[in-house]
Amino acid sequence: MQNSADRHEYPAHWEADVVLRDGGTARIRPITADDADRLVSFYEQVSDESKYYRFFAPYPRLSAKDVHRFTHHDFVDRVGLAATVGGEFIATVRYDRIDADGLPASGPANEAEVAFLVQDAHQGRGVASALLEHIAAVARERGIRRFAAEVLPANSKMIKVFTDAGYTQKRSFEDGVVRLEFDLEPTDRSLAVQRAREQRAEARSVRRLLAPGAVVVVGVGRAPGGVGRSVLDHIRAAGFTGELHAVNNAFPKEQQAIDGVPAHRSVRDIEGPVDLAVVAVPAAYVPAVVAECGEHGVQGLVVVSAGYAESGPEGRERQRELVRHARTYGMRIIGPNAFGVINTAEDVRLNASLAPQMPRPGRIGLFAQSGAIGIALLSRLHRRGGGVTGVTGVSTFVSSGNRADVSGNDVLQYWYDDPDTDVVLMYLESIGNPRKFTRLARRTAAAKPLVVVQGARHGGAAPQGHAVRATRLPHATVSALLRQAGVIRVDTITELVDAGLLLARQPLPTGPRVAILGNSESLGLLTYDACLSEGLRPLAPLDLTTGASPEDFHRALSEALAGDTCDAVVVTAIPTVGEASTRDAALAEALRSASAEVPGKPVLVVHVELGGLAEALSAAASTAPQAVSTASGVVDGAHPFRAAERLPTAEAERPRPAPAPRAPASPPVPAPESCSRLIPAYPAAERAVRALAEAVKYAQWRREAAEPGKVPESIDADIDEKRAAELIGGLLARGQGLTLGTDETYELLGTYGIPVRRALPAPSPDAAAAAARTIGYPVALKATAPHLRHRADLGGVRLDLADEEQLRRAYAELTALFGDPDEVRPVVQGMASRGVDTVVRAVIDPAAGAVLSFGLAGPASQLLGDIAHRLIPVTDRDAASLIRSIRTAPLLFGWRGSAPVDTGALEELLLRVSRLVDDHPEVIAVSLEPVVVAQQGLSVLGASVRLAPPPVRDDLGPRTLPVY
Questions:
Q1: How far is CA 435 from CA 406, 845, 850, in A?
Q2: Which tops the pLDDT comparison, 469 or 37?
Q3: Closest CA to 839 of 874, 888, 806
Q4: Roughly what angle, to the nearest 10 degrees, separates helices 286-296 and 313-328?
């Protein structure tokens, strides 16, 4: 415990679990007086060289005075943090606030001296870099803006920690010591460094789970059946290439093996390292298993055991303790209540799941929070007949269960640069950290397609076992924000697979023009109508008649692909009478060969009861579309990442070998000598066209993301960020959260160049007349009571009052209709130029983050939900697309002969609101209603602002694992 001299209570919010460079975990927490013995033990395990680098002299042991100094902190001017594994220190960092002369100081001095010490056995794991991120965040919270560090020139590792962090710094050399000074304000480079380290660490932590060298299944029954025995059988049947062990404490001491697998009574009895443990014991016995695994050095756990958060409050606490316990040993967890993991790579062949058969190898990464949905997805992708048919393979599969630790975010980090995965399909029932998911999704989608379906969209609550942040945003808004990040959002599992098949097999379309050809006029017309419904631009269908031969299909498809009038081709086919199987094979070959001749455009087939055609079209060993090279590079329309990212390395370009024989239902598929591109086949025109429409929208997003927008510098001229910060600080000094008054709102918005047309209160007819004389006629009289505010449709607004007589008459009508002035709360406001009434809002959602919204004013837009959203900060491109994405946008651009309004001024207003909220996280809500956009300029007629203290940590803070 801290003594009475300590000025602040223990800052529990500084505690965090982090993933280190090698994929292991550590816990970072403040050092307290109770840590004296741990500090001494830690120091004894540090080499003499490291001690010399820390203290610039031989320093074999810490004195009692040293121990007291390094364990007693006030958590303001003196702070120490420790990284721990297994409850023991592996590294420490501390800062001491200093003044301009380098002497100990208190605030307002804003500089501190910082020093690290890392145990030699843990150097090179990125511990110091993680500690620097956290101690810098702590220092900023305590008003420190600059760190100084003195390092011996020979201590190159520590110098590199500071110089690689990305902060703005100054370096000097005097008296044989390197002195580094750096500002703690995050920069674009420091954030980029932090997020690159986060990606590498989290990707490695998942890789350790998916590509282990040795696996143990804990809870293997002695008799066939049961979860543990089943998982063991599945790993064996898949042909796992590493070492496999079985553990059950009920095994007889003399038993050496079970089904040919080495058998043990405890994980401790296993000789040699173990990378992954699959835990299949009752929940009550899991803690003992975790301890055994941790003490043996196991790197990660897949917990298939149930009885955790899905079972109620007691189970939720049991789940939290499970995560705390595992992270103490540096282990990560998939689960609990997980279905398992699969890796089809030839050098791994791991099926540590409840799926009885190994899926075919392929290029699709699959993540499912639900085991039942995971089974359905694997089955759908596996089978040839029914639904979307054809041989489609999986690179890796993760079913996270309650996702108490490893989540979709972690797996996205892994798939981002996984050379064996080209398309990512995810079934999500909840998103634990939506801000991070959106950030990772945007980066992943820029490299490879990411298709997501959300379950439990309309239930109003997350499934049992999933702890998530509450959101006030409707599902449609969340979906729109995901699409903004490049996510291909679909509504059903069928659509998830449909889109995945197309994206895994075909190049991206370069536009929305679709050619349709086939041997059925009716099926062609259905396809044409479906294209129009999905916003595509179909050409007139080409009817080849029912007598068309495979040669006719080949010729028509070749001509369509070679022309410049289409961006994609949909081929429709109906059964022929006679030798169907022969005709199917011939037609499939004709379509494949024609597609191979002009490979830059996607081709889809809509078939009716042509199982043979679907199988023939999919007769290839890999789902990977082939990059097509020309003299100038990749043909336009092909996935650029397949050429740009996978060609430079031999690993990326190594061919996928045919899978070894496994279960009878998973026969190896022979690879043809020439890699023909697979053509996806769909049993309904609507499904094919919907998948194509998603590919078209995604391709458009990719093109736009390649040239991101910017925030014009022109708006900086009349923004006074410093004055706004002073106003906000003074206002928040009054309380924890408040809605600003009218004058305060106008002043704050004015610092960002957002003038609001002033409205004067009119508690009586005489006061209204006086206000109108002050403002000048013509004026508007408005009721501002909550139930009448912004409700012109109820008669609470009187416009264009030209003189006092009209004003008094309107005042009498208003009070007669709605009640006394105290109930109506009338105000007088000067008339704005005629235009289109709009609404601009910004809100800080606890789950999604800062969101900017736009729509037209009035009940119609609210009833229809015609409101568009973008994540803050927005760019000029975001602002332009925001106002054009609502269905009523034509009203802004001269609909039915009306004059277009000044959308440029509207875009600038959106940028200013975004900038205000982005610069000042204390601004948690802004509402501008109405904003009247005229032919020249606009007028903000009403505004409100709400403030609250900013969060201590956010997505810009140091790396940390979530706590659910």
A1: 16, 10, 9
A2: 37
A3: 888
A4: 10
Give every CB contact of residue 482 below 8 A, 6+ residues apart in sequence: 438, 441, 452, 489
- What pLDDT sits at residue 545? 93
CA 613 to chain CA centroid, Å, is 39
Q: Identity (one letter) of the amino acid at 820? A: D
The pLDDT tens digits for 917-936 are 999 989 999 999 999 999 99
| Residue 963 predicted with pLDDT over 80 | no
Indicate whether this model's pTM tops 0.85.
no
CB 618 within 8 A of CB 670: no
* 653: pLDDT strictly greater than 80: no
Under DSSP, the state recorded for 75 is S
Beta strands in 640-733 (DSSP E): 681-682
In 3D space, the residue among 317, 299, 296 whose CA is nearest the CA of residue 308 turns out to be: 317
H-only helix segments in 408-520: 408-416, 434-445, 475-484, 493-505
Is the predicted pLDDT of residue 738 greater than 90, yes or no? no
pLDDT digits (tens, 9 = 90+) for 445-497: 999 999 999 876 555 555 555 555 556 667 777 778 888 889 999 999 999 99
CA dihedral 46, 50, 53, 58 (to 10 degrees): 60
- Strand, coil or helix: 632: coil
Cα separation, 519 vs 641, in Å, equals 36
Burial of 384-399, coded b for 16+ CB within 10 Å and e otherwise, reads eeebbbbbbbbbbbbb
Contacts of 619 (CB under 8 A, 6+ apart): 391, 588, 669, 672
The per-residue pLDDT for 581 is: 58
Distance of CA 298 to the CA centre of its chain: 29
Which run of H or E residues covers position 323? helix 313-328
Supply the DSSP string of 284-310, one letter for each residue.
GGHHHHHHHHHHHT--EEEE----SGG
Across the chain, mean pLDDT equals 86
Return d(Cα 488, Cα 411) in angstroms, integer.
17
Within 354-478, strands assigned E span: 361-368, 394-399, 423-428, 450-454
∠ CA 649-654-659, rounded to 5°: 150
CB-CB neighbours of 116 under 10 Å: 25
Over residues 370-405, the pLDDT tens digits come to 888 888 888 877 763 333 334 568 999 999 999 899
Q: What residues contact 904, with CB distance under 8 A and at least 6 apart? A: none
